[in-house]
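Researcher: Next sequence.
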Amino acid sequence: MGFSSVMIDGSALPYEENIALTKKVVEYAHQFDVTVEGELGVLAGVEDEVAAEASHYTQPSEVIDFVSRTGVDSLAISIGTSHGANKFTPEQCTRDANGILIPPPLRFDILKEIEQKLPGFPIVLHGSSSVPQEYVAIINKFGGKLKDAVGIPESQLREAAKSAVCKINIDSDGRLAMTAAIRQFFVEQPDKFDPRQYLGPAREELKKLYTHKVVNVLGSAGKA
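Model: Next structure:
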């Protein structure tokens, strides 16, 4: 079907079952020169209607065994990222002088230990949206009801991008950017109904967001 890579997430399964499932995918995919990303450690939140209430950090002691026995080409780990726009509860965060929620820092100590055990091996971070507060404010101003939405600080993602982390998954930020632009358009121009009219500004906002991410956060501009 044209895919050059796939991802299999068996992280919610018991360890041995995760290995068995991931290995099965690897054995099939490698027949067609398709690379496989596995996952070890559970991220909290909701992704594609699959929910996990609690996160579990990746155990560095397991990574060599997991990679060796499954044959995966890259490994997604859990060091404190989470799916969705509400990645952390207020109780998990602190607040700055303006009352803005400050999330707990990523566990770079775990990442460093994994790097030492798997030198040069491609590492992946899922659930890495930063939940830009300007988009949250626009959505709420124009009829939305996002409460306590907070994500991963871009400074921490920039630090991760300089390590063995070669792929950082960002989805919610794009959803927020498009939703903010569309909500604002509908309120400010209530006589309009053509999707081509409101999807244009939404697409431009999305383009602006990801240009910023590629250049300033991920540091991947010009490297494709």
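Model: The radius of gyration is 19 Å. Strands lie at 5-7, 35-40, 45-47, 50-52, 74-77, 94-95, 101-102, 123-125, 165-168.
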